[in-house]
């Protein structure tokens, strides 16, 4: 049976460090940006455990591990001991204990608001400091500040997306308040982009909101959507949705699609430029005739349903920006709220698609009849 890992008080660890022991901070890079024990080498726990020889070439050297409060460093020390490192110790109380003991620390490398606001992101190896800065540099266009746009916008703003372009020409109506959580009763009659802008900046004053009170048309769609990293479609009509799709195909930008009706919703990422991706017209080449499209004022929707789908859209947007995980490109995710079931439908790019098919050249944008979609 292996002996238990020895925990050292911060002062004892400091003395050993001064005598030549290697101090390793196993927190994630975003955590280390708040300041580290002076002289420590910084490497995340997962990376250290996966490739210890890169950072610790001598298994007989004296190694001191430190984290935030002492738990991760103790666990990591146990792993390293099992890999043959003979003299590995954990600093009890971690960096907090080190600071309490008034031992030397490096200066923070980011401002306090940033480090505190995004602290839970910064602890994720998949996000970290570089990922959070990538979110801050990102530009997302959000079509619609209604049922789908509301939850998507709130979580994009909270996540620290640096620039959000909100496009909506509508005003807040009392019937919106059952599901459009960006707006308040006092906002009735106010343009949605104005109400949304106030709410989002109150949540995160460090982001930029470009409020565009306009309807997407063939004449302006490419100008409004160009220069963005991701476009989220929260529109409520087929005319806008097809314009958004066609512009995204031409611009090579991923379109995060969502739709809801009654108790059912669906979400996907349309991105034919991506391997295995397709576009909205591959699934629905042409919109239905106006007489067969549901009327927004007549088609009901469970109030929480746009929240579920809008949050999934925001999740896909964040993943796309960070380049992590597996996106819904090539997949239609369907949600049945009554049965509380998700199912996935594989989507294939249609070689004969009128927009992204083989041999299809650049086509003009067309304003379709304003048939109301299920939203």
Automatic annotation (TrEMBL):
Name listed for the protein in its UniProt record: Molybdopterin-synthase adenylyltransferase
Entry similarity comment: Belongs to the HesA/MoeB/ThiF family.
Domain Rhodanese positions: 17-107
Record flagged with keyword ATP-binding: yes
Assembly and binders: Homodimer. Forms a stable heterotetrameric complex of 2 MoeB and 2 MoaD during adenylation of MoaD.
Gene Ontology CC: cytosol
NCBIfam families, A to Z: PRK05690.1, PRK08762.1
Alphabetized UniProt keyword annotations: ATP-binding, Nucleotide-binding, Nucleotidyltransferase, Transferase
Native source organism of the sequence: Paraburkholderia phenazinium
Enzyme Commission number(s) from the entry: 2.7.7.80
Record's function text: Catalyzes the adenylation by ATP of the carboxyl group of the C-terminal glycine of sulfur carrier protein MoaD.
UniProt cross-references to PANTHER family, sorted A to Z: ADENYLYLTRANSFERASE AND SULFURTRANSFERASE MOCS3, UBIQUITIN-ACTIVATING ENZYME E1
GO molecular function: ATP binding; molybdopterin-synthase adenylyltransferase activity; sulfotransferase activity; thiosulfate-cyanide sulfurtransferase activity; ubiquitin-like modifier activating enzyme activity
Reaction(s) this enzyme catalyzes, per UniProt: [molybdopterin-synthase sulfur-carrier protein]-C-terminal Gly-Gly + ATP + H(+) = [molybdopterin-synthase sulfur-carrier protein]-C-terminal Gly-Gly-AMP + diphosphate
Pfam families assigned: Rhodanese, ThiF
């Amino acid at each position: 049976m292996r002996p238990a890992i020895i925990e050292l008080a911060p002062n004892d660890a400091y003395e050993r460090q001064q005598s030549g022991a290697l101090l390793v901070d196993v927190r994630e890079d975003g955590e280390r940006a708040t300041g580290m024990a002076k002289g420590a080498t910084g490497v995340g726990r997962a990376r250290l455990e996966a490739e210890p020889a890169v950072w610790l070439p001598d298994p007989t050297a004296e190694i001191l591990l430190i984290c935030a409060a002492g738990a991760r460093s103790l666990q990591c020390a146990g792993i390293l001991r099992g890999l043959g490192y003979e003299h590995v110790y954990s600093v009890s109380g971690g960096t907090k204990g080190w600071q309490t003991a008034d031992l030397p620390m490096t200066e923070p490398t980011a401002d306090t608001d940033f480090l505190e606001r995004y602290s839970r992101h910064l602890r994720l190896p998949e996000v970290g400091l570089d990922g959070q800065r990538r979110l801050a540099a990102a530009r997302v266009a959000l079509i619609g500040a209604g049922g789908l746009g509301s939850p998507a916008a709130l979580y994009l703003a909270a996540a620290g997306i640096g620039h959000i372009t909100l496009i909506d020409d509508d005003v807040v109506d009392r019937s919106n308040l059952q599901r459009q959580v960006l707006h308040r009763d006092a906002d009735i009659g106010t343009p949605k982009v104005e109400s949304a802008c106030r709410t989002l900046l109150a949540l995160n004053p460090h982001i930029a909101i470009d409020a565009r009170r306009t309807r997407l048309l063939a004449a302006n769609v490419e100008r409004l959507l160009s220069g963005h990293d991701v476009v989220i479609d929260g529109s409520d009509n087929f005319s806008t949705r097809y314009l958004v799709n066609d512009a995204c195909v031409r611009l090579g930008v991923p379109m995060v699609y969502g739709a809801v009706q009654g108790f059912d919703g669906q979400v996907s990422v349309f991105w034919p430029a991506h391997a295995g991706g397709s576009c909205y017209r591959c699934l629905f080449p042409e919109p239905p005739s106006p007489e067969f499209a549901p009327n927004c004022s007549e088609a009901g929707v469970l109030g929480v349903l746009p929240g579920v789908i809008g949050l999934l859209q925001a999740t896909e947007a964040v993943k796309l920006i960070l380049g992590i995980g597996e996106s819904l490109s090539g997949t239609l995710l369907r949600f049945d709220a009554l049965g509380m079931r998700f199912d996935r439908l594989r989507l294939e790019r249609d070689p004969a698609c009128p927009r992204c098919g083989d041999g299809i050249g650049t086509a003009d944008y067309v304003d379709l009849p304003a048939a109301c979609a299920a939203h």
